[in-house]
Amino acid sequence: MMRVLHIGKYFPPFAGGMEYFLADLAQAQAQAGAKVAVLVHSERRQGYRTLPSGDRGITVYRAPCYGQLLYAPVSPAFPFWLKRAISEFRPDLLHLHLPNTSALLALAVPAARRLPWVVHWHSDVVSSLRDRRLAVAYGAYRPLERLILEKAHSIIATSPPYMQSSEALRPWLSRCVTIPLGIDINRIAEPTEGALKQAEDAWGSATLRVLAIGRLTYYKGHEVLIRAAATVEDSRILIAGRGELKDHLASLARDLNLRNRVQLIGYQSEDKLNALLATTDVLCLPSVERTEAFGLVQLEAMCFAKAVVVSDIPGSGTGWVARLANNALLTKPDDPADLSEKLRLLREDPELRRALGAAGPATLAKHFDIGQVAGKVLAVYQGACADRSGRRTSSRARSDRDGSEAV
C-alpha cells in the first residue's frame, strides 16, 4: 500500500481552488487504497496538531503560519513539521505542490531528500506587470526552484499550453506529464432552500446574472469585469471572495456609479456559493495573467451546467479548458470592451447561454472527474517508486559485484 505525503499551501476549510483540488485529490487517492497525509500551513495564527479529516483516511498536519509576505505564507517552523510528518507518517513519496516557498525547504531536510519527489506545477511565478515586486523576489526563489525540479522524478503540469509555455519547465520537459485538475462531483452538494432564497434576493430582477468567484488579488481581473459592467445594462454582477483589492474595487464601482449593478459580497460558505452558481446565468473568469493557470472554478460551473466567459490568456490553461468543454465564450485578457461585448451577447441570447451550459456536465465527467485524475497521478507515483527501487537494486548489485571482485 503506497504512502503519500502531500506538501501544499493550505487545506480546507481555507477556501481556494488549489486547496479544494488538494483535498479532493487526497481523498480520492485514499478511496483508491493509498495511505495519504497532507502538510500545509495553518490558516490560524496558533496552528494546531495533526487533525484527521473526517472518515476518509486523510491525516492533515498544519504548521504554524505568521501571515504572508508577497503572497507567500511565512512559516519558519515548516521544515520541523516536515521532519515530524515524515517521521510519524513514513511516506514512500513526497508530492510537492508549487508554487510554495515552504515546499522549497524540503531541500534542507535530509529525510525528505531521501524520498522520491513528484512536483505538481500549478503555476509559474509570473513576473507581473501589476506587482513588480514579484520579479525581484523570483530572483531569490528561482535557484531553489531549479533544485526542486532537478530533484523531482516527475513534474505534473495541468494543461498542455501551460507546460509548453513555461520557461521554468523548459529544461525538464522530458520529466513532465500533463494531468488536468479535477473535482469531486459528489462534493458539490445541492444548495439548501434557504441559500437559494438568499441567492435569488441577491440577484434581484436583472436580465443577466453574472457571478465571479476568486480572491480579490492582482491577477484575477475583477477590475476589468467592473469596467465592462458599465456598458452591460440590466445586468447584476456579484463578486465573491476576499483579498487585498477589496477597497480598490469597491471604490472603482462607486466611481463608475455601479453600486446597484456590481456588488462585492465577500467570503461565502460552500452552500451559498453553490446557490449562487445554481442561480446565475454566467460564470465569469476575467483573469489577466498566467498566474491563473487553469481556473478550477470553471469545473464548478460545469457541475451546474452554466455558461462561462473566460479570458483566453496566452500560455495558460484557461482557454484550453473552455475549448475542451465547448461551454464558454473566450475574451481578450484585460479588455473591458471585449468582455462587455460577450456579456451583452449572452444577455440577448438565453438559448446560447443554455446551449453552452449544457455542454459542461458531460465534459466534466469525461475529462475532469477526480477519480480519473487520481488514477493518473497514482500511476506517476508508481513509476517514481519503481525507478527508486530499481536504482537501489542496481546499487546493491554493483556493491556486491565490486566487493566480490575486490576479494
Q: What would you say this structure looks like, in words?
A:
The chain is built from 15 helices and 16 strands. It is of the alpha/beta class and 407 residues long. It has two domains: 210 residues, Glycogen Phosphorylase B (Rossmann fold), CATH 3.40.50; 181 residues, 3-Layer(aba) Sandwich (Rossmann fold), CATH 3.40.50.2000. The protein has an eight-stranded mixed β-sheet, with helices on both faces. Strands 13-12-11-14-15-16 form a six-stranded parallel β-sheet, sandwiched between helices. Strands 5-6 form a two-stranded antiparallel sheet. Helix 4 links the parallel strand 8 and strand 9. The chain is globular.
CATH classification class of the largest domain: Alpha Beta
Spatially, the strands of the biggest sheet line up as 3-4-2-1-7-8-9-10
How many domains would you count in the coordinates? Answer: 2
Helices and strands: which structural class? alpha/beta
CA-based shape: globular
Cα-to-Cα separation, first versus last residue:
40 Å
Beta-strand segment tally: 16
**CATH topology tier name of the largest domain:** Rossmann fold
Main beta sheet = 8 strands, mixed
Annotated CATH homologous superfamily of the largest domain: Glycogen Phosphorylase B
Low-pLDDT windows of residues: 403-407
Strand content: 15-25%
Tell me what the CATH architecture of the largest domain is.
3-Layer(aba) Sandwich
- Mean pLDDT, to the nearest integer, reads 90
Q: If you compute it from the alpha carbons, what radius of gyration comes out, rounded to the nearest whole angstrom?
A: 22 Å
Q: Which percent range fits the helix content?
A: 40-55%
Oligomer classification: single chain
Q: Helix tally?
A: 15
